[in-house]
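name: query_chain
kind: protein
chains: 1
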Amino acid sequence: MKWDAIVIGGGPAGSTVACLLARKGWRVALLEGKPFPRPKVCGEYLSAANMLLLEAIGIADDYRALAGPEVRHVGLFAGKRSVVAPLRALHGPGPKWGRALGRDTLDTLLLHHARAAGAEIFQPCVAEFLENSGAGFLCRTKMMKNGDQPEFQARVVIAAHGSWEPGSLPSQHSQPEPAPGHLFGFKAHLTQAELPAGLMPLLAFPGGYGGLVHSPGGLVSLSCCVRRDVLTDLARSPSGTAGDAVLTHILETCPAVRPVLRKCQLADKWLSSGPIRPGIRDMYRDGIFRVGNAAGEAHPAVAEGIGMAMQSAWLLAESLPARAASISEDTLQQAGREYARRWLQTFVSRIRAARVFANLAMRPGFASVGAVALQCIPSMLGLCAAWSGKTDLAFSVREVGYNV
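structure:
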């Protein structure tokens, strides 16, 4: 089967780029290995800076109907101290505040719109082999329901498979050697949590950090990252699952969050994944474009993973030729350079800010020093939110008439 582009991965980045290229008239095959809907370890929050992009894709109305309440305040819970500050409204037109929506719902919604735009979806379909012959790529796959092994050919391959799961494709990473500082993600929904309306706090605790946000249906989403060495120590605890042990660790080392979580109950089982790989990778290499976490990711401390994934997909779609028929080796090289330039310009400062926030939050002494400083100047919390990309538009959304 011959295509203009093969997109490997149907998450926010993959579905977004498939949708946008299909609207240009490209013949797009999207390969997703898991059946939807499926839950993911994710903070769920999408800042208002992404709402114009949702408008351009065509899912803004559905998102507003399904997502949780607006987030108007950010906070920090560290040790015994808590700090809350107003979140600046988004500059420019459109919605002013971000909201949260589970990946099981969001990813299904995005995939549906990619299909409606003309992309053909193969799911569950795992890419097992990928090779560049010089005249294009050959991708061998396996359909998980019936065992069929269709082959795909395309001039363009877009890797949107994330970075957490290793694999044998040239765009994937091998499993890293275990290291004490590796971060593992945990996520669960809670009932009866007493989180103030409109508040999204960062939780700082020794060896990790996390966040809370209101989700749809009256639930509160708790997501967090924990270092491998701390997780190893917690595994000796009689607290039940690893997720239960992590929650106990948070409550013991971050008393400020106890009033919020004192009555909470798990609404579903704990999810876990990792190791998480914050950092910058190749946006274009060996003929393969990368979007989402495959290109680079920020520490989840800034809660911008979904937005960065979708924005990177937009930047790539804008960098590729409008007509698939005009693709040549020269145009692909040019598109790769342009995409990398725009990606770095948009995300480098955000990734650096996230690294600083995460490293500070995980330090044992942060609770006694950082929280005190922020209590003196709570407006710094709002400034940190701006640095992470929550209150400013950093890319162009031409289809809806804005050039920010």
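note: The first helix runs from residue 12 to 23.
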